[in-house]
Amino acid sequence: FLYFSETHGISFRIQITVKELLETDVLLRLLFHLPLNYPSTLPDISVNSDQLTRAQCMDVKHKLLEQAKKHLSEPMVHDLILWIQQHLKDIIKQSAGVCNEKTTLSKGTSTEDGIGMLLLHLDHMRAKAKYVKTVEKWASDLRLTGRLMFMGKIILILLQGDRSSIKEYLILQKTSKVDVDSSGKKCKEKMMSVLCETEVQSQHKRFQTFEVKEYSTLEELQKEFETAGLATLFSEFVPPLLK
């Protein structure tokens, strides 16, 4: 898929399968975000794979960025894809030896990219069950935690995780057919607003899971935010939605 923004550049996702690696095929999902001044500026790259650990995915990403620096000021995406197909096995072998150590070191600390947080507001969900299932799957695939929250007519999605994964989630939310229109046809989300996109701060509690929750009162919803150390986020963005 391809997503273009006049202010942010181009984003696109590529899936490649590397054959006969570690006795199994490895499916890599690569998200490239090319800023407006690419290739004078390096692309942002997100790496996900069900066959690799998060640490291994980060190693693959760092190696790709190292390789990208060698191609600065010239188109590089095609070269990077060919390069990773040839070198993935070596990267994983190197990563395997330090994987446990890295996991221990990174526990409770941010990744190099920082841990991002995103608060979205949706106007409505006509096909609610299907929509909720889709959001849950995306959060799971991208290893994002947080809440999908319903309170009266208010629908909020609060996400925490790697900033590259949050970027990919936003693209999925904007470009996929997640709901149905008034005539029952599948449609993209056109009534979503990004209320806040920021980094997780030390006073914020990290969500361990992604959950779908319904609240009967505004006070219940407010308590959810306060418990997570997000009282300011609530007071700034949620009450205006009631007006």
From TrEMBL:
* Nucleus recorded as keyword: yes
Q: Which residues form a coiled coil?
A: none
The superkingdom listed in its UniProt entry is Eukaryota
Its subcellular locations are:
Cytoplasm; Nucleus
Q: Which GO terms describe its cellular component?
A: cytoplasm; nucleus
Protein keywords: Cytoplasm, Nucleus
One of this protein's GO BP terms? positive regulation of hypoxia-inducible factor-1alpha signaling pathway
List the Gene3D superfamilies hit by this protein, alphabetically.
Ubiquitin Conjugating Enzyme
Q: Which residues form the RWD domain?
A: 1-91
Record InterPro entries: RWD_dom, RWDD3, UBQ-conjugating_enzyme/RWD
Protein name according to UniProt: RWD domain-containing protein 3
